[in-house]
RNA sequence: GGCGGCGUGGCCGAAUGGUUCGGCAGAGGCCUGCAAAGCCUUGCAAAGCGGUUCGAUUCCGCUCGCCGCCUCCA
């Protein structure tokens, strides 16, 4: 059974799902008001890898990730641009899915939108008001944090310490600065919904509770997001569930930040690189490799040099894939090497240790090459198959074959003939021509293959 | 102020109480007509100071440096 670090207990524990063999996970998705940056790319890759891994391990995974399409920032941005907030959200949601596709992040099974869950949120608010956990002020409905058992669990702080450190703006009407809005009352000119609590819109923390419980049900298996969501967002989600006496996530998972130098990359610091910039300039697989080769809870530095490093590493993977593309399909009788698979699984089972998992993959690549060099085909193929299987489990799509223009193919054949005649001068001329067309020919046991120059 | 975490070879990233590991880059060699790809060999890593121990990079303490959360944030 895989184990994961649980933010709630601060230790690595078995994930032991609610229903054997099934795994339900909810990950906080984007607020669609602007271009996603590298941090968004990291978290989506981390949970994509988790999802792929659990599936590969035989779990039936149900993965829900929301789109926050109503929010103060969306409204503010839309106001600046003089467009409707709905249109802004729609536009950036399209941007989001486009980028996810480029990153080869598989679509969640369900992608609920906050605006489709307003009724459910209002029911929840009514329930919390009725039970006395929530109270009304002139501008909305607030949850009284002091009435929630164990508030501060995810922040690893007790209520008194949180309160003393609170930097939230003072609101005379709130019983505590930590109390948070469930429903924000607004004027009717603004974007909003009619409700028993007056015209307005939901608070941020409420939507995820409604959607997670509404889709996955009580006691779902895992709730994840970036570390900065642990507090207050996830804390406040949990608080609402507690206030309603519903069991919430069994397990909390938080990934580390993308760093810029010694600082966290973030919108507010303005030190971000957008995902689009990255993907326009780098093989998206290089970023995935980078994410996978550091532990998901560690900070991750991304620079041009580090990306270059990952790209070169990727070249090694592709070269390996090219070398084994044919023989692997020919030898359907050979199974992936079990020692390699087990080593990978052991690493991934222990808090999703993909760096060690990748190390096992690279070792298998070396063994496959070593064996192939010596003509030990079965050993080579078993290692190669294991490596290829594990790479796909990490979502790394290998480029094992390159389609070349007919012209290049003809030149390569001519070169092959020239070499057979031991006319090396001619062979080299053909190779130069191929290079001029943007390809490198490599000799192989069976003839030749190509890579991009 | 409270809480959590980090400091590993030229670079990035892991594991680990004793022999460590992966990638990238470097050096030498093998293979190749020459390349490419590949393989092999190679480099006295643990911020500092103490302590525990037969033995510490790994455990404990202190010092220094850095980061994150406590506000919107992946």
Topology record:
Layout: E1 3-6, E2 11-14, E3 22-27, H1 38-56, E4 60-65, H2 72-81, H3 85-102, H4 118-131, E5 134-137, E6 140-143, H5 159-165, E7 180-185, E8 200-202, H6 204-216, E9 222-226, H7 230-243, E10 252-255, E11 258-260, E12 263-264, H8 275-281, H9 284-292, E13 300-301, H10 304-330, H11 338-349, H12 354-373, H13 377-393, H14 406-420, H15 424-436, E14 439-444, E15 447-452
Parallel strand pairs: 3-4, 3-9, 9-10, 11-13
Antiparallel strand pairs: 1-2, 5-6, 6-7, 7-8, 11-12, 14-15
The chain binds one RNA strand of 74 nucleotides through helix 1, helix 5, helix 7, strand 12 and strand 13.
CATH 2nd-level architecture of the largest domain = 3-Layer(aba) Sandwich
* Unreliable parts: none
The number of helices is: 15
The secondary-structure class comes to: alpha/beta
| Largest beta-sheet characterization | 4 strands, parallel
Spatial arrangement of strands, main beta sheet: 4-3-9-10
Arithmetic mean pLDDT: 95
Distance between the termini: 44 Å
How is the CATH topology of the largest domain named? Rossmann fold
CATH class of the largest domain: Alpha Beta
Query: Helix proportion of residues, in percent?
Result: 40-55%
Q: How many domains, in number, for the residues? A: 3
Q: What is the number of E strands?
A: 15
Overall geometry comes to elongated
Strand content of the residues, in percent? 5-15%
